[in-house]
Amino acid sequence: MDITIGQYFPKNSLIHRLDPRTKLLSVVFYMVMIFISKDAYSFLLSGLLMVSVIALSKIPFKYYFKGLKPILIIMILSVLCLFIAAVECLQVGDNRKKDKERGIDSKK
Questions:
Q1: How many domains would you assign to the chain?
Q2: CA–CA separation, 91 vs 97, rounded Å?
Q3: What whole-number distance in Å separates Cα of residue 18 and Cα of residue 10?
């Protein structure tokens, strides 16, 4: 199994020339940005930011995907669980809206 996550890839790019403290603070800022995201637009913005940083690093995209291959099953299961939870949440919200229209208090 070839695990490439976290390995150094030598290139001469803007990202590689940054001070390590700057890169570390940027990662912390990115993680906080993802955790405080509330809607699809903020997640889209964080995804675009990640793609732009990857492009600036001049490391081929296939190298990143090759590194994610070992955790692909975990990622797929996580997305499925999130999708199922979102669908159930929407159904519960619809039922509460219908109950409210009928005059039924669903918070009891």
A1: 2
A2: 10
A3: 13
Domain that residue 90 falls in: 70-108
Contacts of 42 (CB under 8 A, 6+ apart): 33, 36
What is the identity of the amino acid at 48?
L
- pTM over 0.90, yes/no: no
Rg (alpha carbons) of the chain, rounded to whole number:
20
Do 47 and 78 lie in a common domain? no
- Look up residue 81 and give its two tokens: 């669980």
Rounded to whole angstroms, the Cα distance separating 65 from 50 reads 14
- Which strand (E) or helix (H) includes residue 81? helix 72-102
Query: What is the average pLDDT across 73-96?
Result: 75
The 10s digit of each residue's pLDDT in 6-17 is 677 788 889 889
Cα–Cα distance measured from residue 5 to residue 28, given in angstroms and rounded to the nearest whole number = 17
